């Protein structure tokens, strides 16, 4: 750091905005992009520490690499990083007027219930996106969730995240790591963690935001462990009698000690919050899916297995994204249209008249014949629970690049042949 210019790299230092065990966060100016940024600078003595230096370097590298790949409106953005031995820093999105959730976890500063629902909803959506990218945060707590003056949410500090992909091992930090008060039972037992660990931690945060109390507080680590592992949390209504029953049920499910009884995914957590919002609020939150979330949902489907990322984006932009609630019709028998559907999330029921003749699940496709020849639909299709799907029209696909169209047509024809083959097998049997 230059004493005369007060710069680190190209970044002009303005003021200190935060301090942590591993580094200092400055508000800085980026003259190249003409924006203010948050500059997290690693402490040299920490990185060079004989005993812990190697671990701290892994954590710092982990945060720079992982967060930079997670592009979501509710995840703190990372723009740049320098990871040299004597000059390690991460350049992050600056949240003007941003505060962590810590002050709002005290009984004196509780937020309105509708704000709490919205904050936890957005955090759950961010975590669902990260989990779909193979990233488990492992350190969800009030100090790692930022809100701005408009109550928009940013989840930050992915330094101890666990990557669930088998091909990534070099920067994984294993063992009992994280903040004990916000660990899940399986995390404390040092078992393999999944996204349900983050769900438990977010449930703890929601409990604190609603009550101003932590359900498992104690003055010794061993006592905290015992409470989280073996003791039921105190019912929310013991602290506040005005909390609606629908919210206490959501928190209880998120805090279930058995992952099998917990929310299976963060999007399920978010969905229940959305339903609660519909029931309780005059202006309920909308469960919209961002472009980044849509990409994350479809890139893992078999249909897109051999597509490069740029062509998946082309298809997303040449298609429409549609969400359906349980029982809503997607295709009606006898209608005519030229759409082809790819199920990104959820399942559907296929009916002929009033008779169910089949079901399709995530990754399945339907509507091939209509897409080819714009013929009458021969069956109806209804959402079985909440459904998200990609609706492709032949006229819009013509706008994609030639290579994208060729790849799409190849996979589409393979899908059609498989469908016809299965139909033939059913007829002959």
The count of β-strands is 17
Portion in beta strands: 15-25%
Main sheet: strand order:
1-2-3-4-6-5
Order of SSEs: EEEEHHEEEHEEEEHHHHHHHEEEEEHEHH
Topology diagram in text:
Blueprint: E1 7-8, E2 11-19, E3 23-30, E4 35-42, H1 44-47, H2 53-69, E5 78-83, E6 88-93, E7 99-100, H3 113-132, E8 135-136, E9 145-147, E10 153-155, E11 162-163, H4 185-188, H5 195-211, H6 221-230, H7 245-254, H8 266-280, H9 291-299, H10 309-317, E12 319-324, E13 329-331, E14 339-352, E15 355-360, E16 365-366, H11 368-373, E17 380-393, H12 394-397, H13 402-428
Helix pairs in contact: 3-5, 3-8, 5-7, 7-8, 9-10
Can you give a write-up of this model?
- There is one protein chain.
- This protein is an alpha+beta fold and 429 residues long.
- The protein has 3 domains: 7-93, 2-Layer Sandwich (Phosphorylase Kinase, domain 1); 99-280, Orthogonal Bundle (Transferase(Phosphotransferase), domain 1); 309-428, Jelly Rolls (Sandwich), CATH 2.60.120.10.
- Helix content is 35%, strand content 22%.
- The protein has 13 helices and 17 strands.
- α3 packs antiparallel against α5 and α3 (113-132) packs antiparallel against α8.
Key terms:
single chain, Phosphorylase Kinase, domain 1, Jelly Rolls, 429 residues, Transferase(Phosphotransferase), domain 1, 17 strands, alpha+beta, 3 domains, six-stranded antiparallel β-sheet, globular
């Amino acid at each position: 750091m230059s004493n005369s210019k007060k710069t680190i790299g190209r970044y002009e230092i303005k003021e200190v905005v935060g301090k942590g065990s591993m580094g200092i966060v400055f508000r800085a100016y980026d003259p190249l992009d003409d924006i203010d940024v948050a500059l997290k600078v690693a402490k040299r003595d920490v990185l060079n520490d004989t005993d812990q230096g190697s671990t701290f370097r892994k954590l710092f590298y982990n945060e720079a690499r992982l967060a930079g790949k997670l592009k979501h409106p509710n995840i703190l953005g990372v723009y740049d990083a320098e990871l040299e031995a004597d000059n390690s820093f991460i350049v992050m999105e600056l949240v003007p007027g941003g505060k962590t959730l810590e002050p709002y976890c005290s009984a004196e500063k509780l937020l309105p219930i509708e704000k709490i629902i919205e904050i936890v909803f957005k955090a759950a959506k961010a975590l669902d996106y990260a989990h779909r990218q193979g990233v488990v945060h492992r350190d969800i707590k009030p100090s790692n969730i930022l809100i701005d003056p408009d109550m928009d949410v940013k989840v930050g500090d992915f330094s101890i995240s666990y990557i669930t992909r088998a091909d990534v091992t070099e920067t994984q930090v294993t063992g009992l790591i994280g903040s004990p008060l916000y660990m899940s039972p399986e995390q404390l037992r040092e078992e393999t963690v999944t996204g349900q660990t983050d769900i438990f931690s977010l449930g703890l945060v929601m409990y604190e935001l609603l009550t101003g109390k932590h359900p498992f507080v104690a003055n010794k680590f061993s006592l905290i462990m015992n409470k989280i592992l073996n003791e039921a949390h105190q019912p929310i209504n013991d602290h506040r009698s005005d909390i609606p029953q629908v919210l206490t049920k959501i928190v209880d499910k998120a805090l279930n000690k058995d992952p099998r009884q917990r929310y299976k995914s963060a999007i399920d957590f978010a969905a229940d919050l959305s339903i609660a919002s519909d029931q309780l609020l005059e202006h309920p939150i909308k469960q919209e899916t961002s472009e980044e979330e849509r990409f994350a949902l479809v890139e893992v489907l078999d249909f897109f297995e051999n597509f490069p990322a740029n062509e998946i984006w082309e298809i997303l932009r040449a298609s429409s994204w549609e969400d359906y609630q349980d029982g809503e019709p997607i295709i009606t028998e006898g209608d005519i249209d030229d759409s082809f559907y790819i199920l990104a999330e959820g399942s559907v029921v296929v009916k002929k008249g009033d008779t169910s003749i089949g079901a399709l699940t995530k990754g399945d496709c339907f509507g091939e014949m209509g897409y080819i020849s714009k013929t009458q639909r021969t069956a109806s299709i209804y959402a079985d629970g909440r459904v998200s799907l990609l609706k492709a029209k032949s006229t819009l696909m013509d706008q994609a690049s030639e290579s994208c169209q060729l790849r799409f047509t190849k996979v589409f024809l393979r899908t059609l042949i498989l469908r016809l083959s299965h139909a033939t097998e059913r007829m002959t049997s």
